[in-house]
Amino acid sequence: xxxxxxxxxxxxxxxxxxxxxxxxxxxxxxxxxxxxxxxxxxxxxxxxxxxxxxxxxxxxxxxxxxxxxxxxxxxxxxxxxxxxxxxxxxxxxxxxxxxxxxxxxxxxxxxxxxxxxxxxxxxxxxxxxxxxxxxxxxxxxxxxxxxxxxxxxxxxxxxxxxxxxxxxxxxxxxxxxxxxxxxxxxxxxxxxxxxxxxxxxxxxxxxxxxxxxxxxxxxxxxxxxxxxxxxxxxxxxxxxxxxxxxxxxxxxxxxxxxxxxxxxxxxxxxxxxxxxxxxxxxxxxxxxxxxxxxxxxxxxxxxxxxxxxxxxxxxxxxxxxxxxxxxxxxxxxxxxxxxxxxxxxxxxxxxxxxxxxxxxxxxxxxxxxxxxxxxxxxxxxxxxxxxxxxxxxxxxxxxxxxxxxxxxxxxxxxxxxxxxxxxxxxxxxxxxxxxxxxxxxxxxxxxxxxxxxxxxxxxxxxxxxxxxxxxxxxxxxxxxxxxxxxxxxxxxxxxxxxxxxxxxxxxxxxxxxxxxxxxxxxxxxxxxxxxxxxxxxxxxxxxxxxxxxxxxxxxxxxxxxxxxxxxxxxxxxxxxxxxxxxxxxxxxxxxxxxxxxxxxxxxxxxxxxxxxxxxxxxxxxxxxxxxxxxxxxxxxxxxxxxxxxxxxxxxxxxxxxx
Length: 658
Prior knowledge:
Layout: H1 5-26, H2 31-42, H3 57-82, H4 84-108, H5 113-124, H6 128-137, H7 144-158, H8 160-165, H9 167-170, H10 178-212, H11 216-236, H12 241-252, H13 258-282, H14 286-291, H15 293-317, H16 322-331, H17 337-347, H18 354-375, H19 378-385, H20 394-401, E1 407-410, H21 414-426, E2 430-434, H22 437-445, E3 450-452, H23 458-463, E4 471-474, H24 479-492, E5 497-502, H25 508-513, E6 518-521, H26 522-537, H27 542-553, H28 558-561, H29 573-578, E7 581-586, H30 598-601, H31 603-607, E8 610-616, E9 619-622, E10 635-640, H32 642-652
Parallel strand pairs: 1-2, 1-4, 2-3, 4-5, 5-6
Antiparallel strand pairs: 7-10, 8-9, 8-10
Helix pairs in contact: 1-2, 1-13, 2-13, 3-12, 3-13, 4-5, 4-7, 4-15, 5-17, 6-7, 7-16, 10-11, 10-12, 11-12, 15-16, 15-18, 16-19, 26-27
């Protein structure tokens, strides 16, 4: 029965995973932290529910492959190009500076050279999973600190590939010749580049052919084959499975089927990832942690502070405010999941002793736990940094002094840019407040009325002339800053008309309490557009549609936000559908009914709809007879029920009626 113990172990892992996912969701902590802790508890150094760690490694390796594939799928060349500046500057600086400083600290502490370099790399990596979850939960992915944090995290993910490739040269194996290792690394880079180019030409057509089968099972099996096949090819070339999986994800991210691929793979990834992170926790000696609490605490705090401080200075160097820098530092201060992947690969090259590995693993887990806790301090950090005096360009200040009865636009994204263009064309005075220094510099050169500043700061609002402004529009993707700024703006000028764009409906009530005159939630505006298009398809008259939309917008979408919607508040659409309606149909030159009489077309007998008029050359032919011809360019006015009008349009388009 020993050969089936691995199934028993997997059952235990999955049994533990379910309550962990539920509990950590309630605590607003990433579930991967729970998996790591669970591994510590049920492993050979805990309650010994799982003793044979080696048997889990194969399953854990599949978890790593799927994790690397989805990261490659989510990164994509398009996304890299979109954030390339932050990716290269902020991400590159963070990785290089953190690795170098950490290396010097470890080396001066008496750790061998190659291990110090390796530990420096491990420390430089942060958790993409944690920062993405924190930002997503707070609706801050598109905020300035969200964009910078994601850029840094993506750069770290991209560095995984070269880090895997240089592991042999860091090995302590005396049989490995440095020159030969360097040659192998060059060959590995060449093989990786060749694989990327080859996969770019062959993978998308293969996926397309699989998709044409229109069989979900075939699509799923085909995608898994491509992932594992590419991973196995890189393994045969002397590289890791993870590199091949990452390349497969990177290539398929550019295909038309990337969203479907992600949907098919995510459940598998999540299941195998739980096994991987639990397997990492299994390796942690909990007794070592209990016997060395000061050592683990010291490493945890010092490593977190080191990374956070380095990131703070880098973001400040990019001319962003202290608040943005601190939030980026806190969000990326932890040691990430790819450090575990790299650490496990490094143990095969004797780059970590047992004690160092245990210390690294324990401190990494605790930095992950520390991050969500410290991230809760965001409101306090924002409040404290808002007390600092802002530095504003004198030219910008003079520009704002000349304005009165103007519009203040917070943010120069798509919405802010479009609003500014309309105001400029209509001659309405306005000024834009933007936090991205590069955007401000570029748009000022283009003659835009824009100033650099944090919209939540009282001094920035006063410089922008909020007390003289008529309207303030919030077109930013930072809910906390929007709320703080709105409160300050209404305190200075209670009569200013405030218009707030928000992404989610659950933010409407709080914004209204803070004094927002109009809140436009993208979530419900999308729902209203869908609502309108569906009613148009059913030929509901435009005035009735607009009446329904206006009704739904009243009271800040309160009807849509109620669990039990009051149907009596709406006009009875079913009665409208039951009544007769009119619709127009334009006769194209390729219509099969051109130069035929209405009697030959026989529309009423075919569809139950009636042609009540024909508009030709601007003249209306009312009550046409069966002898009247249908000509190209005519507009037919149809009358009937919704069903009959739909059938008539289908028939006139040349469709066959069932």
